[in-house]
Specification:
single chain; alpha/beta; Aconitase, domain 3; 3 domains; 449 residues; globular; 4-stranded parallel sheet; 5-stranded parallel sheet
């Protein structure tokens, strides 16, 4: 933050103007951000830097709701006006109109070649996350990019409209909470269990406007997907951002994606301050963690999965920026392989690239996709946010009646996935899989012995 503000150093509580490296918006907040930008800077105004604005429709896409479809068209019109290079449109026709066709059903692909899927997963896939940078997004889970050693946080439409016109934003430097991860996860325990444990320790508001710093010897055993899962849910404790140290894994992932997509490949990682100060410290022994569930009505309601076997379920769901990555579906399939689910189970890959991974990777004579559908999972090719945040009533996987759902998503406040009387239990993809097989919350280690 000091670097982005042109200062030698800053301290918690300082109010500083920072220069923005990337501004991301999507179909839900993009039209509002564009409206603020045009109102404040003029109908003919140009964004401060076309190469630093990334627009990714992903939220209310695969729905027949006409207003949701229109939001995507508003984004396209603005991109055309501004000549923005980083727009990951649902359709290939730059002058066309988006309209979801319900007659084709929810499972068959309805997007074009430019579509990128869930914004937070797409940003690193498309080469827009770099160490040491400042990334703002009009979505609370923008903090997921902190896995790549950058300051990434969600902002509102008004702030985003201002950034769009100036490239700057006034921020208060957050205090820092320190989470030291030691050891190595046991089979059946995933990164989702790490962050649910941390949130359970401090509560769903325990990190309000604070940075959550993750380091320790256990980090080397966590993949970039794992780190993304953890950083993603910093906001579920109220965090301003989550951040990981830079290492060889970070470098390899960022370099490969920037080179593949032809995006900016230079960056300057940030290191820990030798005089760092923390307002809270927690050491987590990863080897001692067990599968965890965050119970209704907030992510801080932590319980062990093995203690919740009496909780019967109506539905299981794997998807979202948090739980819809390739590695998430691999663990999902590892538990389900050769078995059958006993409750309605939905799978929504986060991006088209992940759909491709699952449909081409083979375990023996079956692809991972086939293993999941053989098990009875309803898998959709229409990658996106889907039911993670409810959406229109025809959204794939949405709960339109009071139900109990175990989900690999990130948020479980009342009404989050649809009906306001439904209950969402947050868990890892492995725990979701085990629970889908039994119809009640189940420790996945029962199926991995």
């Amino acid at each position: 933050m000091a670097r982005a503000a042109g200062k030698k150093m800053v301290e918690a509580g300082d109010n500083i103007w920072v220069q923005t490296d990337i501004l991301m918006t999507h179909d839900v907040c993009g039209p509002g951000t564009i409206g603020v930008f045009k109102r404040e800077f003029g109908e003919k105004a140009k964004v401060w830097d076309a190469n630093k604005v990334v627009i990714i429709p992903d939220h209310y896409i695969f729905t027949a709701d006409s207003k949701s479809n229109r939001n995507v068209d508003i984004l396209r019109e603005f991109v055309r006006e501004q000549n923005l290079p980083y727009f990951y449109d649902v359709i290939d026709d730059a002058n066309g109109k988006w309209k979801f066709d319900p007659s084709k059903g929810a499972l068959q692909r309805q997007y074009g070649s430019h579509y990128a899927g869930v914004c937070h997963t797409a940003l690193p896939q498309k080469g827009h996350t770099r160490p040491g940078e400042i990334l703002f997004g009009t979505d609370s889970h923008t903090c997921m990019a902190g896995a790549f050693n950058e300051f990434a946080t969600g902002i509102g439409n008004t702030d985003a409209g201002f950034v769009m016109g100036t490239g700057k934003l006034l921020l208060k430097v957050p205090e820092t909470m320190h989470f030291r991860l030691e050891g190595q996860l046991q089979p059946g325990v995933m990164a989702k269990d790490i962050i649910l444990h941390c949130i359970g320790e401090i509560g769903f508001d325990g990190a309000t406007y604070r940075a959550m710093q993750f380091d320790g010897s256990g980090i080397e055993y966590l993949t970039m997907d794992d780190r993304m899962t953890i950083a993603n849910m910093a906001i579920e404790a109220g965090g301003k951002n989550g951040i990981f140290e830079f290492d060889d894994q970070t470098k390899a992932a960022v370099d490969q994606r920037c080179k593949l997509n032809g995006t900016k490949g230079t960056y300057q990682p940030v290191e820990r301050d030798k005089k760092e100060k923390f307002v809270y410290e927690l050491t987590v022994d990863l080897s001692a963690l067990e599968p965890i569930v965050a119970c209704h009505p907030d992510p801080g309601q932590r319980k062990l999965a093995r203690e919740m076997t009496s909780t019967k379920l109506d539905r299981a769901y794997v998807g979202s920026c948090t739980g819809g990555k390739t590695s998430d579906f691999v663990e999902f399939a590892r538990v389900l392989r050769g078995k059958k689910v006993v409750i309605d189970t939905f799978g929504v890959p986060a991006t088209p690239e992940i759909v491709h991974d699952l449909q081409t990777a083979r375990w023996g004579d079956r692809t991972i996709w086939q293993i999941l559908t053989d098990a009875g999972v309803q898998m959709t090719e229409n990658a996106g946010c889907a039911a993670c945040l409810g959406g229109p009533v025809d959204t794939f996987g949405r709960m339109n009646a009071p139900m109990k759902c175990i989900s690999a998503t990130n948020r479980n406040f009342p009404g989050r996935m649809g009906h306001k009387e439904s209950q969402v239990f947050l868990a890892s993809p492995a725990t979701v899989a085990a629970s889908a097989l039994t119809g009640h919350i189940t420790d996945p280690r029962e199926f991995l012995s």
